[in-house]
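S1.2 Input.
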Amino acid sequence: MTLLNAIYEQDFLDCSYGFRPGRGAQDALDEVGRVICRKPTAYVLELDISSYFDTIVREQLMEMIEKRISDASILRLLRKWINVGVIDEGRLLSSETGTGQGQIISPLLANVYLHFVLDKWFADVVKPRLKGRAFAIRYADDGLLCFERREDAEKVLAVLPKRFAKFGLTLHPEKTRLVHFGRSALAKAERGGVKADTFDFLGFTHLCARSRQGRFTLHVKTMKKRLRRSLTAAADWCRRHRHDPVLEQRRTLNAKLRGHYQYYGRPTNYRSLRKFYRKVRCLWKTWLTRRTRGRRLTWERYARFLQRYPLAVPRITRSWAGAASRT
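S1.3 Output.
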């Protein structure tokens, strides 16, 4: 595994951020801000691959790997890795496609596949044929293609399904979409008195906005679906652990809150963090009330309770320096 990582780190392009040492989702989000705010971007193409990890064509994956690795023993081991089945309810299940999810090597192999299918193809074949500038940002199977000109974006959108189908992959027809986004999109929306289009990436909804000085900037907020999912998980935890000692409940809830802030605590997203905090606070009250055996837990009593057992308050964990440029 270490050897393969060292080999492919020399090959992977800068646009790739998933499952790589020293890189992560926050770095990909920072790059989105730089591309949108500092580069000539006017159109964003959201990519959504249906069941990516389960539809990788193994033989094509091995052909890609064989272009870089010639050691027969390593290749045999890789074949065993990708062809192993999974145990589900005591039964061994196997399939003809996919990389054997759950294995430590699966993310690397999935990265190798999209390196050839998308990253290298876009950089070496597509970009030289475009009239304007273009940029790619990918984290695992989540990706964005950003374009200066609409005609370039539409040409790429037209050819992408054929490119992906060649390798057994399918783009989700509804979630893969082209949006007008950037300075020109915001100016057009303002002239028409409407809101500019948005796009989603790595759990955040990205919005065109103005800084306090009136300059174009990029704002983000937690995706509604992600916020609902996080709150559902918090409610389920509170229900299942409502009879645990209060100190233990508080300790775990604070760990969950800090983890949420650590990922979603990007500049301009404080309102979403505050909403999550307030909802979790209400959820805790609801399930603490269930264990009082008829004694009502009023908001006044609950406020005193929170003074004794405070919950972690929202905070921004990323700085503007690494986020979208405000210029």
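S1.4 Remarks. Residues 321-327 have pLDDT under 50 and may be disordered.
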